[in-house]
Fold this protein.
Amino acid sequence: MKISMDTKICDLKLTLKGSYVETCFQTLKSELKEKKIRLTPHIWISTDWFCPDGITGFALPFFLFSKELMELEKRMIGEAEGEGHDWCMMLMRHEMGHVLDNAYGLRKKKKRQQLFGLSSVPYPEKYKPNIYSKNFVRNLDDYYAQAHPDEDWAETFAVWLNPRIQWRKAYADWPALEKLTYVDSLMDEIANIKPQKKSHEKIECFKDDTRTLREYYSEKIKRLKIGHRQNQSQTTTPVVMM
């Protein structure tokens, strides 16, 4: 299929099978199995990375499923979020933290609330992270764990799940170690237990998006204020829908 800026997103011929995203997803499932987590998330193609509240799966942006679309994203936005195995895995582990939160109602636990804060706290339009803080783990860029209690949770889970990180050693002298230790004990608690709550709904699937690529990028550039970046210490919070 020839792609132009007038191509509608819903008309894109995209599939998980055969993509490098499929390889990443298989790796994620292996990591979850190794940790005895009895939940395989469902994933779908949308316009962004997000895990809707109450859903036991997460969406991935359409541009990751085509080299041509990935190059277009980089040309229009400056980067393609999730490009490459390592970046994609960091994001998948992060979204999986949200999935488990939805599936097992983890945000209701008092210890979770004490360590991470309340999920009911409104998301800020912007946040100014303390780049020297050791109260938060570091997984995604922009010190994203500091954006919101739910992002702190998801980022901490992502670090805990990553088999390449010896988190006890890496965070030995960090206050964030208490959060990682709590995640470890909580995952041991739910190990081999199937969640009672599952929802396979696909929110904002690309097949339902009738915008053209031209319209999509016009809106995205305006939303992200491309070309009008503010001081880098003021970080715009990405849409996560949690």
Observations:
- The first strand starts at residue 42 and ends at 46.
